[in-house]
Specification:
By secondary structure, this protein is mostly helical. It folds into 2 domains: 3-45; 58-128. It is 69% helix and 0% strand. Helix 4 packs antiparallel against helix 5. The N and C termini lie far apart (49 Å).
Length: 134
């Protein structure tokens, strides 16, 4: 793979996956490519479209995790056995990890129906997991 293709792929990854601006990418790759080249690559390879698709994909994953957390909460409330409580704790950990990995904030937010409210999270932590101060 040529040096130019490696730089192009790295710049695309920084823009699409990591959500960096072209200015930030230019600073990271300073001396290796020009701003004009970055802008050309962005347009030619449709980075904005790919970034939007990436954000939507990540939101879908998070929405799925939220549904799992709610299902685990329901099961743990109905039958608070160690298996159900452990499943709930793992689902909450996955949700926290998904929140910690912020790729790029899109202006669109997930559906209100799939969001886990702060109140629901505190209830899970207090009543199911026995954690009072989180």
């Amino acid at each position: 793979m040529s040096k130019s293709l490696i730089l192009r792929d790295e710049a695309r990854r920084l823009y699409v996956n990591d959500g960096l601006t072209l200015e930030a990418i230019f600073e990271i790759l300073k001396g290796k490519i020009s701003k004009r080249t970055l802008y050309l690559w962005k347009e030619q390879d449709e980075w904005d479209k790919k970034r939007t698709e990436n954000v939507r994909h990540n939101e879908n994953i998070k929405d799925g995790i939220i549904k799992i957390v709610k299902l685990c909460l329901k099961r743990a409330e109905e039958d608070p056995n160690p298996h159900n409580i452990y499943a709930l704790a793992k689902a909450i950990a996955a949700l926290r990890e998904a929140d910690a990995v912020k790729i790029f904030e899109n202006k669109e937010s997930p559906s209100e129906k799939t969001k886990l409210t702060d109140e629901e999270l505190k209830k899970i932590q207090k009543e199911i997991l026995g954690i009072d101060n989180v």
